[in-house]
Amino acid sequence: MSTTSRPATPNQSHLLIGLSSLIFLPMLAVVMISYTAHQTTPDHGPAWRAFVFAVAVGVIMGGVLVRAVPTFGGTVPALAPVRGAAALVPFVALAVVFLVGRLVHQPVPVTTGFLAGVDAVLAAVLLLRSLRSR
Question: What pLDDT shows up at residue 56?
Protein backbone atom coordinates (compact mmCIF):
# COMPACT_ATOMS: atom_id res chain seq x y z
CA MET A 1 0.00 0.00 0.00
CA SER A 2 1.39 3.36 -1.00
CA THR A 3 1.86 6.03 1.65
CA THR A 4 2.05 8.93 -0.79
CA SER A 5 -0.94 11.20 -0.99
CA ARG A 6 -2.13 13.32 -3.83
CA PRO A 7 -3.91 16.65 -3.51
CA ALA A 8 -7.58 16.72 -4.37
CA THR A 9 -8.47 17.54 -7.94
CA PRO A 10 -10.68 20.58 -8.63
CA ASN A 11 -13.58 18.27 -9.42
CA GLN A 12 -13.19 16.52 -6.06
CA SER A 13 -13.09 19.90 -4.32
CA HIS A 14 -16.24 21.01 -6.14
CA LEU A 15 -18.00 17.78 -5.18
CA LEU A 16 -16.97 18.02 -1.52
CA ILE A 17 -17.95 21.68 -1.10
CA GLY A 18 -21.18 21.17 -3.06
CA LEU A 19 -22.22 18.19 -0.95
CA SER A 20 -21.43 19.98 2.29
CA SER A 21 -23.53 22.94 1.15
CA LEU A 22 -26.35 20.58 0.19
CA ILE A 23 -26.27 18.92 3.63
CA PHE A 24 -26.38 22.32 5.34
CA LEU A 25 -29.65 23.40 3.66
CA PRO A 26 -32.01 21.10 5.65
CA MET A 27 -30.40 22.28 8.88
CA LEU A 28 -31.18 25.88 7.93
CA ALA A 29 -34.78 24.90 7.16
CA VAL A 30 -35.10 23.29 10.61
CA VAL A 31 -33.74 26.47 12.24
CA MET A 32 -36.25 28.65 10.44
CA ILE A 33 -39.23 26.38 11.11
CA SER A 34 -38.24 26.03 14.75
CA TYR A 35 -37.84 29.79 15.06
CA THR A 36 -41.31 30.52 13.70
CA ALA A 37 -42.85 27.73 15.80
CA HIS A 38 -41.45 29.28 18.98
CA GLN A 39 -42.36 32.88 18.15
CA THR A 40 -44.68 34.48 20.66
CA THR A 41 -46.57 36.50 18.05
CA PRO A 42 -49.25 34.77 15.98
CA ASP A 43 -48.17 36.61 12.81
CA HIS A 44 -45.22 34.85 11.19
CA GLY A 45 -45.36 36.95 8.01
CA PRO A 46 -42.58 39.42 8.86
CA ALA A 47 -40.17 36.62 9.71
CA TRP A 48 -40.84 34.78 6.46
CA ARG A 49 -40.63 37.98 4.40
CA ALA A 50 -37.26 38.77 5.99
CA PHE A 51 -36.16 35.20 5.27
CA VAL A 52 -37.15 35.38 1.60
CA PHE A 53 -35.47 38.77 1.13
CA ALA A 54 -32.29 37.43 2.74
CA VAL A 55 -32.38 34.32 0.51
CA ALA A 56 -32.40 36.63 -2.53
CA VAL A 57 -29.42 38.57 -1.17
CA GLY A 58 -27.67 35.26 -0.38
CA VAL A 59 -28.22 34.03 -3.93
CA ILE A 60 -26.56 37.18 -5.25
CA MET A 61 -23.62 36.67 -2.85
CA GLY A 62 -23.36 33.01 -3.89
CA GLY A 63 -23.20 34.10 -7.52
CA VAL A 64 -20.38 36.51 -6.68
CA LEU A 65 -18.50 33.74 -4.86
CA VAL A 66 -18.90 31.33 -7.77
CA ARG A 67 -17.62 33.95 -10.22
CA ALA A 68 -14.69 35.34 -8.22
CA VAL A 69 -13.28 32.57 -6.00
CA PRO A 70 -10.95 30.05 -7.67
CA THR A 71 -11.90 27.27 -5.22
CA PHE A 72 -15.44 27.50 -6.55
CA GLY A 73 -14.31 27.59 -10.18
CA GLY A 74 -14.17 31.36 -10.65
CA THR A 75 -11.39 33.60 -11.83
CA VAL A 76 -9.33 35.87 -9.62
CA PRO A 77 -9.74 39.62 -10.22
CA ALA A 78 -6.72 41.15 -11.97
CA LEU A 79 -6.13 44.14 -9.68
CA ALA A 80 -4.30 43.46 -6.41
CA PRO A 81 -6.50 45.76 -4.26
CA VAL A 82 -9.61 44.05 -5.60
CA ARG A 83 -8.14 40.64 -4.74
CA GLY A 84 -7.41 41.83 -1.21
CA ALA A 85 -10.91 43.23 -0.77
CA ALA A 86 -12.49 40.12 -2.26
CA ALA A 87 -11.11 38.02 0.58
CA LEU A 88 -13.08 40.10 3.08
CA VAL A 89 -16.35 40.44 1.16
CA PRO A 90 -18.08 37.28 2.54
CA PHE A 91 -17.31 38.22 6.14
CA VAL A 92 -18.36 41.84 5.71
CA ALA A 93 -21.53 40.75 3.91
CA LEU A 94 -22.45 38.39 6.74
CA ALA A 95 -21.85 41.14 9.31
CA VAL A 96 -23.99 43.57 7.31
CA VAL A 97 -26.76 40.99 6.98
CA PHE A 98 -26.73 40.38 10.72
CA LEU A 99 -26.81 44.14 11.38
CA VAL A 100 -29.74 44.61 9.00
CA GLY A 101 -31.51 41.73 10.73
CA ARG A 102 -31.02 43.42 14.09
CA LEU A 103 -32.34 46.70 12.70
CA VAL A 104 -35.53 45.09 11.37
CA HIS A 105 -35.87 42.97 14.54
CA GLN A 106 -35.55 39.71 12.59
CA PRO A 107 -31.90 38.63 13.02
CA VAL A 108 -32.50 34.88 12.88
CA PRO A 109 -34.60 34.81 9.67
CA VAL A 110 -32.31 37.28 7.90
CA THR A 111 -29.09 35.47 8.80
CA THR A 112 -30.61 32.05 8.10
CA GLY A 113 -31.97 33.21 4.75
CA PHE A 114 -28.64 34.69 3.71
CA LEU A 115 -26.79 31.47 4.52
CA ALA A 116 -29.46 29.41 2.76
CA GLY A 117 -29.19 31.52 -0.39
CA VAL A 118 -25.40 31.26 -0.53
CA ASP A 119 -25.46 27.52 0.16
CA ALA A 120 -28.17 26.86 -2.42
CA VAL A 121 -26.14 28.53 -5.17
CA LEU A 122 -22.90 26.83 -4.12
CA ALA A 123 -24.55 23.41 -3.90
CA ALA A 124 -26.25 23.71 -7.28
CA VAL A 125 -23.32 25.16 -9.22
CA LEU A 126 -20.57 23.04 -7.69
CA LEU A 127 -22.47 19.76 -7.93
CA LEU A 128 -23.36 20.49 -11.55
CA ARG A 129 -19.73 21.34 -12.33
CA SER A 130 -18.46 18.16 -10.70
CA LEU A 131 -21.03 16.00 -12.52
CA ARG A 132 -20.44 17.71 -15.87
CA SER A 133 -16.72 17.01 -15.77
CA ARG A 134 -17.14 13.24 -15.66
Answer: 93
